[in-house]
Write a structure and sequence with these properties.
The structure is a single chain. The protein is an alpha+beta fold. It has one domain. About 35% of the residues lie in helices and about 15% in strands. It has 7 helices and 6 strands; from the N terminus they run H-H-E-E-E-E-E-H-H-H-H-E-H. It has a 6-stranded antiparallel β-sheet with strand order 1-2-3-4-5-6. The chain starts with 8 loop residues before the first helix and ends with a helix. About 5% of the residues have low confidence.
Length: about 260
Amino acid sequence: MADFARLSRAQLESMAAGGIAVQASQRALEAAGSSPLAAALQHATTVYEWQHYPAGDVYDPDSHAQYFYHAHPPGERRDGAPDGAPEHGHFHTFLRERGMPPGVRPLVMPELAIADNPAAPKAPLVASAPQTVAGEEADAWCHLVSIAMDAQGRPLRFFTTNRWVTSETWYPAADVARMLDRFALGPMPPSPELNRWVAAMIGLYKPMLADLVARRDAAVMDWRRRRRAKVHVFDDRRLEVISVLDIDVDSQIAAVAAALRRVA
């Protein structure tokens, strides 16, 4: 259970604004006979495993935020929500180097968290890496969080992944938390309302996502200590999904509103 008492009024107000935007986007999509999932898939009747949706990803050249949706083969999908709804697929969200706040630095460890370092273990190209963006071909990217969805377009959970999953450059949790503030999406096609929804979901849960990424780092360090010198932790295929936050959007919005009333 999130500790809302530790959050400032400014944080709560920002989360409340995210909740308002999430609900407004969902209503707009529903009015058009759509949903966040349907908008991502562009209402495709056949969904191809590992294919990025929307095609070519969504990228904001002003904020340098990027995201896409895809689905794994059924045997590789995570278990369903607490109420039994299975995962259909998930959004991956990223921030590219030019959009990162000043002072962030990749984590430096013997495992070489920097993507494509010549001394790093070579890994095959993975389908969870973002598509190349014109003008930023050489820029590093940081994977922020993923949002798992059910087949009805309902968000189930946030989760974080190991470095090999997205071929990202690894930044410490404190830096990733700062990047969450920089994840913004304008009204670019194919679905401005979906863009608004994805960014608003991060806004609604931002303090919890900072905790989620901190738990990611703690789990990675624990994994490394227990397997020291046996395998590069960031390339260890046994460690894929690292930290998970199950969510209920309506409950989160209600909890934020209640917390705001307490500090009024």
